[in-house]
Design a protein that fits this description.
Blueprint lengths: L3 H7 L8 H4 L2 H22 L1 H10 L20 H6 L15 E4 L9 E4 L1 H17 L7 E4 L7 H13 L2 E3 L6 H11 L3 E4 L1 H13 L11 E5 L5 H11 L2 E8 L4 E7 L7 E3 L4 E6 L7 E2 L5 E7 L10 E7 L1 E2 L9 E2 L4 E2 L4 E3 L2 E3 L1 H8 L5 E10 L8 E8 L5 H18 L5 E5 L14 E3 L5
Parallel strand pairs: 3-4, 3-5, 5-6, 6-7, 19-22, 20-21
Antiparallel strand pairs: 1-2, 7-8, 8-9, 9-15, 10-11, 10-12, 12-13, 13-16, 14-15, 17-18, 19-20
Helix pairs in contact: 3-4, 6-7, 8-9, 9-10, 11-12
The protein binds 5'-O-[hydroxy(phenylacetyl)phosphoryl]adenosine (DLL).
5'-O-[hydroxy(phenylacetyl)phosphoryl]adenosine (DLL) binds next to helix 7, strand 7, strand 8 and strand 13.
Protein backbone atom coordinates (compact mmCIF):
# COMPACT_ATOMS: atom_id res chain seq x y z
CA UNK A 1 0.00 0.00 0.00
CA UNK A 2 1.23 3.51 -0.72
CA UNK A 3 0.38 6.64 1.15
CA UNK A 4 -1.58 8.98 -1.11
CA UNK A 5 0.68 11.96 -0.37
CA UNK A 6 3.93 10.17 -1.22
CA UNK A 7 2.43 8.76 -4.38
CA UNK A 8 1.03 11.99 -5.71
CA UNK A 9 4.30 13.76 -5.01
CA UNK A 10 6.38 11.11 -6.71
CA UNK A 11 4.61 10.06 -9.86
CA UNK A 12 1.73 10.84 -12.18
CA UNK A 13 -1.49 10.14 -10.34
CA UNK A 14 -2.34 7.06 -12.39
CA UNK A 15 0.72 5.16 -11.13
CA UNK A 16 0.45 3.02 -8.02
CA UNK A 17 3.93 2.63 -6.63
CA UNK A 18 5.36 -0.31 -4.67
CA UNK A 19 5.59 0.47 -0.98
CA UNK A 20 9.38 0.04 -1.14
CA UNK A 21 9.56 2.86 -3.72
CA UNK A 22 8.24 5.37 -1.23
CA UNK A 23 9.90 4.38 2.05
CA UNK A 24 12.46 6.59 3.78
CA UNK A 25 16.20 6.09 3.37
CA UNK A 26 16.47 4.99 7.01
CA UNK A 27 13.80 2.36 6.56
CA UNK A 28 15.42 1.23 3.32
CA UNK A 29 18.85 0.88 4.94
CA UNK A 30 17.41 -1.13 7.82
CA UNK A 31 15.80 -3.45 5.25
CA UNK A 32 19.10 -3.67 3.34
CA UNK A 33 21.02 -4.62 6.47
CA UNK A 34 18.71 -7.46 7.45
CA UNK A 35 18.53 -8.75 3.88
CA UNK A 36 22.31 -8.45 3.50
CA UNK A 37 22.95 -10.37 6.70
CA UNK A 38 20.67 -13.10 5.46
CA UNK A 39 22.25 -13.16 1.97
CA UNK A 40 25.89 -13.47 3.09
CA UNK A 41 25.00 -16.27 5.51
CA UNK A 42 22.87 -18.00 2.87
CA UNK A 43 25.66 -17.76 0.25
CA UNK A 44 28.30 -18.97 2.74
CA UNK A 45 26.22 -21.98 3.75
CA UNK A 46 25.12 -23.02 0.28
CA UNK A 47 27.79 -22.08 -2.27
CA UNK A 48 31.24 -23.67 -1.79
CA UNK A 49 32.95 -20.82 -3.70
CA UNK A 50 31.68 -18.25 -1.18
CA UNK A 51 32.68 -20.40 1.79
CA UNK A 52 36.17 -20.78 0.34
CA UNK A 53 36.52 -17.10 -0.49
CA UNK A 54 35.19 -15.84 2.85
CA UNK A 55 37.44 -18.29 4.76
CA UNK A 56 40.47 -17.23 2.72
CA UNK A 57 39.70 -13.57 3.41
CA UNK A 58 39.19 -14.35 7.11
CA UNK A 59 35.62 -13.05 7.22
CA UNK A 60 32.48 -14.73 8.47
CA UNK A 61 28.83 -13.78 7.85
CA UNK A 62 28.54 -12.80 11.53
CA UNK A 63 31.10 -10.02 10.87
CA UNK A 64 28.41 -8.14 8.94
CA UNK A 65 26.94 -5.93 11.68
CA UNK A 66 26.41 -2.73 9.72
CA UNK A 67 26.17 -1.92 6.03
CA UNK A 68 29.76 -0.64 5.81
CA UNK A 69 31.00 -4.08 6.97
CA UNK A 70 30.21 -5.30 3.47
CA UNK A 71 33.59 -3.84 2.43
CA UNK A 72 35.32 -6.62 4.41
CA UNK A 73 33.91 -9.30 2.12
CA UNK A 74 35.68 -10.52 -1.04
CA UNK A 75 34.56 -9.57 -4.54
CA UNK A 76 32.97 -11.90 -7.07
CA UNK A 77 34.03 -11.63 -10.71
CA UNK A 78 32.93 -12.94 -14.09
CA UNK A 79 35.95 -15.23 -13.88
CA UNK A 80 34.48 -16.87 -10.75
CA UNK A 81 31.27 -17.61 -12.64
CA UNK A 82 33.25 -19.03 -15.54
CA UNK A 83 35.31 -21.27 -13.28
CA UNK A 84 32.14 -22.56 -11.65
CA UNK A 85 30.56 -23.26 -15.06
CA UNK A 86 27.83 -24.29 -15.45
CA UNK A 87 25.99 -24.55 -12.12
CA UNK A 88 28.62 -24.24 -9.41
CA UNK A 89 27.32 -20.88 -8.19
CA UNK A 90 23.75 -22.10 -7.69
CA UNK A 91 22.53 -22.06 -4.10
CA UNK A 92 19.51 -24.29 -4.61
CA UNK A 93 19.06 -27.84 -5.94
CA UNK A 94 18.48 -28.00 -9.68
CA UNK A 95 14.78 -28.93 -9.33
CA UNK A 96 14.21 -25.53 -7.68
CA UNK A 97 15.77 -23.67 -10.60
CA UNK A 98 12.87 -22.51 -12.75
CA UNK A 99 14.91 -20.86 -15.50
CA UNK A 100 18.44 -20.51 -16.79
CA UNK A 101 19.95 -17.66 -18.78
CA UNK A 102 23.50 -17.26 -20.02
CA UNK A 103 25.75 -14.62 -21.51
CA UNK A 104 26.79 -15.05 -25.13
CA UNK A 105 30.26 -16.21 -24.15
CA UNK A 106 32.00 -14.57 -27.11
CA UNK A 107 35.11 -14.24 -24.98
CA UNK A 108 35.62 -17.52 -23.14
CA UNK A 109 32.99 -19.71 -21.52
CA UNK A 110 29.45 -18.48 -21.12
CA UNK A 111 28.40 -17.32 -17.68
CA UNK A 112 25.31 -19.16 -16.55
CA UNK A 113 22.69 -17.75 -14.20
CA UNK A 114 19.62 -19.33 -12.63
CA UNK A 115 16.34 -18.23 -11.07
CA UNK A 116 13.88 -19.82 -8.68
CA UNK A 117 10.15 -19.12 -9.15
CA UNK A 118 10.43 -16.41 -6.50
CA UNK A 119 13.47 -14.89 -8.25
CA UNK A 120 11.45 -14.73 -11.48
CA UNK A 121 8.57 -13.05 -9.66
CA UNK A 122 10.91 -10.48 -8.06
CA UNK A 123 12.57 -9.85 -11.41
CA UNK A 124 9.22 -9.29 -13.14
CA UNK A 125 8.19 -6.94 -10.32
CA UNK A 126 11.36 -4.87 -10.70
CA UNK A 127 11.10 -4.65 -14.48
CA UNK A 128 7.44 -3.64 -14.06
CA UNK A 129 8.56 -0.99 -11.56
CA UNK A 130 11.20 0.27 -14.00
CA UNK A 131 8.79 0.40 -16.94
CA UNK A 132 6.18 2.21 -14.85
CA UNK A 133 8.79 4.73 -13.72
CA UNK A 134 9.60 5.32 -17.39
CA UNK A 135 5.99 6.16 -18.25
CA UNK A 136 4.57 2.75 -19.25
CA UNK A 137 1.15 2.02 -17.75
CA UNK A 138 -1.12 -1.02 -17.39
CA UNK A 139 -3.19 -1.52 -20.53
CA UNK A 140 -0.57 -0.09 -22.85
CA UNK A 141 0.69 -2.08 -25.83
CA UNK A 142 4.41 -2.78 -25.51
CA UNK A 143 6.57 -3.73 -28.50
CA UNK A 144 9.45 -5.75 -27.05
CA UNK A 145 12.45 -5.70 -29.41
CA UNK A 146 15.00 -7.01 -26.93
CA UNK A 147 16.38 -10.35 -28.05
CA UNK A 148 14.60 -13.45 -26.68
CA UNK A 149 16.60 -16.50 -25.68
CA UNK A 150 19.48 -16.96 -23.30
CA UNK A 151 20.03 -13.17 -23.23
CA UNK A 152 18.09 -11.77 -20.27
CA UNK A 153 16.76 -8.75 -22.21
CA UNK A 154 13.84 -10.30 -24.10
CA UNK A 155 12.26 -12.55 -21.51
CA UNK A 156 13.11 -10.21 -18.63
CA UNK A 157 11.41 -7.24 -20.28
CA UNK A 158 8.53 -9.45 -21.41
CA UNK A 159 7.74 -10.75 -17.91
CA UNK A 160 7.98 -7.24 -16.47
CA UNK A 161 5.61 -5.75 -19.04
CA UNK A 162 3.14 -8.58 -18.43
CA UNK A 163 3.41 -8.15 -14.66
CA UNK A 164 2.62 -4.46 -15.10
CA UNK A 165 -0.55 -5.39 -16.98
CA UNK A 166 0.51 -4.44 -20.48
CA UNK A 167 -0.26 -6.16 -23.78
CA UNK A 168 3.12 -7.51 -24.87
CA UNK A 169 4.19 -7.89 -28.49
CA UNK A 170 7.15 -10.30 -28.28
CA UNK A 171 8.88 -9.50 -31.57
CA UNK A 172 12.48 -9.94 -30.30
CA UNK A 173 15.43 -8.27 -32.10
CA UNK A 174 16.09 -8.23 -35.84
CA UNK A 175 13.78 -8.45 -38.88
CA UNK A 176 13.60 -4.68 -38.95
CA UNK A 177 11.13 -4.47 -41.84
CA UNK A 178 8.71 -6.66 -39.92
CA UNK A 179 9.18 -4.57 -36.79
CA UNK A 180 8.13 -1.51 -38.76
CA UNK A 181 5.05 -3.24 -40.19
CA UNK A 182 3.97 -4.35 -36.72
CA UNK A 183 4.56 -0.90 -35.23
CA UNK A 184 2.32 0.55 -37.93
CA UNK A 185 -0.37 -2.13 -37.70
CA UNK A 186 -0.49 -2.88 -33.94
CA UNK A 187 0.09 0.73 -32.87
CA UNK A 188 2.09 0.10 -29.67
CA UNK A 189 2.43 2.83 -27.05
CA UNK A 190 5.90 1.83 -25.91
CA UNK A 191 8.97 0.15 -27.35
CA UNK A 192 11.66 -1.74 -25.48
CA UNK A 193 14.99 -2.05 -27.31
CA UNK A 194 18.65 -1.21 -27.19
CA UNK A 195 19.20 2.45 -28.10
CA UNK A 196 21.21 1.55 -31.21
CA UNK A 197 18.55 -0.90 -32.37
CA UNK A 198 15.88 1.78 -32.01
CA UNK A 199 18.12 3.96 -34.14
CA UNK A 200 18.24 1.17 -36.74
CA UNK A 201 14.43 1.02 -36.73
CA UNK A 202 14.09 4.81 -37.08
CA UNK A 203 16.60 4.83 -39.87
CA UNK A 204 14.85 2.02 -41.74
CA UNK A 205 11.53 3.87 -41.38
CA UNK A 206 13.01 6.95 -43.01
CA UNK A 207 14.35 4.81 -45.87
CA UNK A 208 10.81 3.53 -46.45
CA UNK A 209 9.50 7.09 -46.49
CA UNK A 210 7.80 6.73 -43.10
CA UNK A 211 8.26 9.62 -40.67
CA UNK A 212 9.47 7.98 -37.41
CA UNK A 213 7.79 10.81 -35.49
CA UNK A 214 4.40 9.83 -36.90
CA UNK A 215 4.03 6.40 -35.24
CA UNK A 216 1.85 5.56 -32.22
CA UNK A 217 4.95 5.18 -30.01
CA UNK A 218 5.11 7.51 -27.01
CA UNK A 219 7.67 5.85 -24.74
CA UNK A 220 10.93 3.96 -25.21
CA UNK A 221 12.75 2.10 -22.45
CA UNK A 222 16.30 1.60 -23.60
CA UNK A 223 19.31 -0.19 -22.21
CA UNK A 224 21.74 -3.11 -22.44
CA UNK A 225 24.47 -0.85 -23.82
CA UNK A 226 25.92 2.57 -22.99
CA UNK A 227 24.20 5.58 -24.52
CA UNK A 228 24.43 9.33 -24.06
CA UNK A 229 22.17 12.34 -23.49
CA UNK A 230 22.93 13.30 -27.09
CA UNK A 231 21.56 9.94 -28.27
CA UNK A 232 18.48 10.47 -26.10
CA UNK A 233 17.91 13.83 -27.78
CA UNK A 234 18.40 12.29 -31.24
CA UNK A 235 15.89 9.48 -30.59
CA UNK A 236 13.34 11.67 -28.81
CA UNK A 237 13.27 14.25 -31.58
CA UNK A 238 13.31 11.88 -34.56
CA UNK A 239 10.68 9.58 -33.03
CA UNK A 240 8.64 12.05 -30.97
CA UNK A 241 8.90 9.86 -27.87
CA UNK A 242 10.11 10.03 -24.28
CA UNK A 243 13.16 7.80 -23.96
CA UNK A 244 14.29 6.47 -20.57
CA UNK A 245 17.11 4.27 -19.43
CA UNK A 246 16.89 0.76 -17.98
CA UNK A 247 19.97 -0.92 -16.58
CA UNK A 248 20.87 -4.41 -15.52
CA UNK A 249 23.17 -7.35 -16.02
CA UNK A 250 22.63 -11.09 -16.08
CA UNK A 251 24.97 -11.89 -13.21
CA UNK A 252 22.94 -9.64 -10.91
CA UNK A 253 19.48 -10.37 -12.41
CA UNK A 254 18.98 -8.96 -15.92
CA UNK A 255 17.18 -5.75 -16.96
CA UNK A 256 15.48 -3.87 -14.12
CA UNK A 257 18.30 -3.60 -11.58
CA UNK A 258 17.75 0.13 -12.10
CA UNK A 259 15.24 2.21 -14.03
CA UNK A 260 14.77 5.84 -14.92
CA UNK A 261 11.80 8.06 -14.07
CA UNK A 262 10.17 9.82 -17.01
CA UNK A 263 9.34 12.92 -14.99
CA UNK A 264 12.99 13.64 -14.16
CA UNK A 265 15.03 11.75 -16.80
CA UNK A 266 18.09 12.15 -14.63
CA UNK A 267 19.58 8.66 -14.47
CA UNK A 268 18.32 5.26 -13.37
CA UNK A 269 17.23 4.65 -9.79
CA UNK A 270 18.85 1.52 -8.43
CA UNK A 271 16.18 -0.61 -6.75
CA UNK A 272 18.00 -0.70 -3.46
CA UNK A 273 15.47 -2.89 -1.67
CA UNK A 274 16.87 -5.73 -3.81
CA UNK A 275 20.48 -4.67 -4.56
CA UNK A 276 23.14 -2.93 -2.50
CA UNK A 277 25.43 -0.91 -4.79
CA UNK A 278 28.99 0.25 -4.08
CA UNK A 279 31.49 2.20 -6.13
CA UNK A 280 35.11 1.13 -5.93
CA UNK A 281 38.33 2.40 -7.43
CA UNK A 282 38.70 0.20 -10.55
CA UNK A 283 42.48 0.26 -10.21
CA UNK A 284 42.61 -0.25 -6.43
CA UNK A 285 39.49 -2.23 -5.49
CA UNK A 286 40.30 -2.03 -1.79
CA UNK A 287 39.14 1.60 -1.94
CA UNK A 288 35.38 2.03 -1.62
CA UNK A 289 34.46 5.48 -2.96
CA UNK A 290 31.84 7.88 -1.68
CA UNK A 291 28.65 8.92 -3.45
CA UNK A 292 29.35 11.21 -6.40
CA UNK A 293 32.81 9.80 -7.02
CA UNK A 294 33.34 7.99 -10.33
CA UNK A 295 34.52 4.39 -10.26
CA UNK A 296 33.44 0.79 -10.88
CA UNK A 297 29.97 -0.30 -9.89
CA UNK A 298 29.71 -3.31 -7.57
CA UNK A 299 26.46 -5.08 -6.62
CA UNK A 300 25.35 -7.42 -3.87
CA UNK A 301 21.95 -9.07 -4.30
CA UNK A 302 19.67 -8.89 -1.26
CA UNK A 303 16.83 -11.26 -2.11
CA UNK A 304 18.04 -13.73 -4.74
CA UNK A 305 17.65 -17.44 -4.02
CA UNK A 306 19.16 -19.39 -6.94
CA UNK A 307 22.19 -17.20 -7.49
CA UNK A 308 22.99 -14.93 -4.58
CA UNK A 309 25.80 -12.63 -5.68
CA UNK A 310 28.19 -10.94 -3.29
CA UNK A 311 30.10 -7.80 -4.31
CA UNK A 312 29.98 -8.52 -8.03
CA UNK A 313 32.43 -6.36 -10.00
CA UNK A 314 30.40 -5.17 -12.99
CA UNK A 315 33.29 -3.35 -14.74
CA UNK A 316 30.73 -0.63 -15.49
CA UNK A 317 32.05 2.84 -14.76
CA UNK A 318 29.67 5.34 -13.21
CA UNK A 319 28.88 7.09 -9.92
CA UNK A 320 26.13 7.02 -7.33
CA UNK A 321 23.87 10.05 -7.03
CA UNK A 322 21.12 10.88 -4.52
CA UNK A 323 17.60 9.70 -5.30
CA UNK A 324 15.18 12.22 -6.84
CA UNK A 325 11.88 10.81 -8.17
CA UNK A 326 12.31 7.90 -5.71
CA UNK A 327 14.18 9.70 -2.90
CA UNK A 328 15.35 6.63 -0.95
CA UNK A 329 16.83 4.87 -3.98
CA UNK A 330 20.12 6.24 -5.24
CA UNK A 331 20.56 6.91 -8.92
CA UNK A 332 23.45 5.89 -11.09
CA UNK A 333 25.06 8.36 -13.45
CA UNK A 334 25.23 7.36 -17.09
CA UNK A 335 27.64 4.49 -17.64
CA UNK A 336 30.60 6.12 -19.33
CA UNK A 337 31.82 2.72 -20.47
CA UNK A 338 33.13 -0.59 -19.22
CA UNK A 339 36.65 -0.80 -17.88
CA UNK A 340 37.30 -3.58 -20.41
CA UNK A 341 35.93 -1.46 -23.29
CA UNK A 342 38.32 1.37 -22.60
CA UNK A 343 40.64 2.18 -25.47
CA UNK A 344 44.06 3.28 -24.29
CA UNK A 345 45.46 5.29 -27.16
CA UNK A 346 48.98 6.51 -26.63
CA UNK A 347 48.35 6.78 -22.92
CA UNK A 348 44.97 8.51 -23.23
CA UNK A 349 41.84 6.67 -22.05
CA UNK A 350 38.90 6.81 -24.41
CA UNK A 351 35.38 5.38 -24.47
CA UNK A 352 33.04 5.09 -27.47
CA UNK A 353 30.41 7.11 -25.54
CA UNK A 354 32.74 10.13 -25.55
CA UNK A 355 32.86 10.00 -29.35
CA UNK A 356 29.05 9.61 -29.50
CA UNK A 357 28.61 12.66 -27.31
CA UNK A 358 30.90 14.84 -29.45
CA UNK A 359 29.78 13.55 -32.87
CA UNK A 360 26.08 14.07 -32.18
CA UNK A 361 26.69 17.74 -31.46
CA UNK A 362 27.85 18.20 -35.07
CA UNK A 363 24.69 18.53 -37.18
CA UNK A 364 26.22 17.18 -40.41
CA UNK A 365 27.17 13.87 -38.79
CA UNK A 366 24.86 10.91 -38.05
CA UNK A 367 24.89 8.74 -34.90
CA UNK A 368 26.22 5.82 -36.96
CA UNK A 369 29.92 5.41 -36.26
CA UNK A 370 32.55 2.84 -35.47
CA UNK A 371 36.05 3.05 -34.10
CA UNK A 372 38.91 1.27 -35.79
CA UNK A 373 42.20 0.69 -34.06
CA UNK A 374 45.21 -0.14 -36.20
CA UNK A 375 48.97 -0.17 -35.92
CA UNK A 376 50.37 0.66 -39.37
CA UNK A 377 53.30 -1.49 -40.61
CA UNK A 378 56.62 -0.59 -39.08
CA UNK A 379 55.06 1.86 -36.62
CA UNK A 380 54.94 1.58 -32.87
CA UNK A 381 52.06 4.01 -32.44
CA UNK A 382 48.42 2.93 -32.52
CA UNK A 383 46.10 4.76 -34.85
CA UNK A 384 42.42 5.50 -34.22
CA UNK A 385 40.10 6.02 -37.16
CA UNK A 386 36.55 7.22 -36.49
CA UNK A 387 34.36 6.05 -39.36
CA UNK A 388 31.12 7.99 -39.28
CA UNK A 389 28.24 8.37 -41.72
CA UNK A 390 27.24 11.81 -42.87
CA UNK A 391 23.56 12.73 -42.62
CA UNK A 392 21.49 11.96 -45.68
CA UNK A 393 20.83 15.68 -46.25
CA UNK A 394 24.52 16.64 -46.24
CA UNK A 395 26.78 16.69 -49.29
CA UNK A 396 30.25 15.11 -49.39
CA UNK A 397 31.79 18.60 -49.48
CA UNK A 398 29.64 19.70 -46.54
CA UNK A 399 30.81 16.76 -44.48
CA UNK A 400 34.52 17.53 -45.01
CA UNK A 401 34.36 20.51 -42.64
CA UNK A 402 32.38 18.42 -40.14
CA UNK A 403 35.14 15.81 -40.20
CA UNK A 404 37.70 18.46 -39.28
CA UNK A 405 35.50 19.75 -36.47
CA UNK A 406 35.06 16.24 -35.07
CA UNK A 407 38.79 15.61 -35.19
CA UNK A 408 39.50 18.89 -33.38
CA UNK A 409 36.79 18.34 -30.77
CA UNK A 410 38.11 14.85 -30.00
CA UNK A 411 41.59 16.32 -29.58
CA UNK A 412 40.28 19.05 -27.25
CA UNK A 413 37.84 17.01 -25.14
CA UNK A 414 39.46 13.57 -25.09
CA UNK A 415 43.08 14.44 -25.79
CA UNK A 416 43.56 11.90 -28.60
CA UNK A 417 44.66 12.52 -32.16
CA UNK A 418 42.66 10.50 -34.65
CA UNK A 419 41.66 10.28 -38.28
CA UNK A 420 38.04 10.91 -39.18
CA UNK A 421 36.63 9.14 -42.19
CA UNK A 422 33.17 10.37 -43.18
CA UNK A 423 31.41 7.60 -45.08
CA UNK A 424 28.22 7.25 -47.13
CA UNK A 425 24.88 7.06 -45.29
CA UNK A 426 23.90 3.41 -44.77
CA UNK A 427 27.41 2.02 -45.29
CA UNK A 428 28.21 1.03 -41.70
CA UNK A 429 26.85 -2.07 -40.03
CA UNK A 430 23.53 -1.51 -38.26
CA UNK A 431 22.69 -2.72 -34.76
CA UNK A 432 20.41 -5.68 -34.10
CA UNK A 433 20.84 -5.45 -30.34
CA UNK A 434 24.02 -4.60 -28.56
CA UNK A 435 26.11 -2.73 -31.11
CA UNK A 436 29.81 -3.35 -31.51
CA UNK A 437 31.53 0.02 -31.78
CA UNK A 438 35.19 -0.97 -31.54
CA UNK A 439 37.05 -2.84 -34.25
CA UNK A 440 40.53 -3.63 -32.98
CA UNK A 441 42.70 -4.53 -35.97
CA UNK A 442 46.04 -4.20 -34.20
CA UNK A 443 48.35 -7.19 -34.56
CA UNK A 444 47.93 -9.48 -31.57
CA UNK A 445 50.95 -9.38 -29.27
O1 LIG B 1 22.23 -6.29 -21.03
C1 LIG B 1 20.55 -6.76 -19.36
C2 LIG B 1 19.68 -5.73 -19.94
C3 LIG B 1 18.80 -6.07 -20.95
C4 LIG B 1 19.68 -4.43 -19.46
C5 LIG B 1 17.95 -5.12 -21.47
C6 LIG B 1 18.83 -3.48 -19.97
C7 LIG B 1 17.95 -3.83 -20.98
P1 LIG B 1 24.02 -8.45 -20.02
O2 LIG B 1 23.90 -8.99 -21.39
O3 LIG B 1 24.53 -9.34 -18.95
O4 LIG B 1 22.65 -7.93 -19.50
O5 LIG B 1 24.94 -7.17 -20.13
C8 LIG B 1 25.16 -6.37 -19.02
O6 LIG B 1 25.36 -4.38 -20.39
O7 LIG B 1 27.24 -4.70 -17.37
C9 LIG B 1 26.57 -2.96 -18.95
O8 LIG B 1 27.91 -2.97 -19.40
C10 LIG B 1 25.63 -3.02 -20.17
N1 LIG B 1 24.38 -2.30 -19.87
C11 LIG B 1 23.19 -2.80 -19.52
N2 LIG B 1 22.28 -1.82 -19.37
C12 LIG B 1 22.93 -0.65 -19.62
C13 LIG B 1 22.55 0.71 -19.61
C14 LIG B 1 21.89 -6.94 -20.07
N3 LIG B 1 21.31 1.10 -19.38
C15 LIG B 1 26.01 -5.19 -19.40
N4 LIG B 1 23.51 1.63 -19.89
C16 LIG B 1 26.23 -4.25 -18.23
C17 LIG B 1 24.78 1.25 -20.17
C18 LIG B 1 24.27 -0.97 -19.93
N5 LIG B 1 25.18 -0.02 -20.19
Amino acid sequence: MTTPTAESALAPSDAVLDREETISRDELEALQLSRLQHTVAYAYDRVPLYKRKFDEAGVHPTDLRELSDLGKFPFTTKEDLRLEYPFGMFAVPQREVARIHASSGTTGRATVVGYTKKDLADWAKLVARSLRASGVRPGMKVHNAYGYGLFTGGMGAHAGAEALGCTVIPISGGQTERQITLIQDFKPDAILATPTYLLTIADAMMKQGIDPASTSLKYAVLGAEPWTEEMRHELETTMNIKACDIYGLSEVMGPGVAGEAVETQDGSHIWEDHFRPEIIDAFDPTVVLGDGEPGELVFTSLTKEALPIIRYRTKDLTRLLPGTARPAHRRMGRITGRSDDMIILRGVNLFPSQIEEIALRIPELSPHFQLELTRPEGQRMDQLTVKIERRESVTVEGSATAAKVLQQQIKIHVGSSCTVDVVEPGSLERSNGKLRRIYDMRPKA
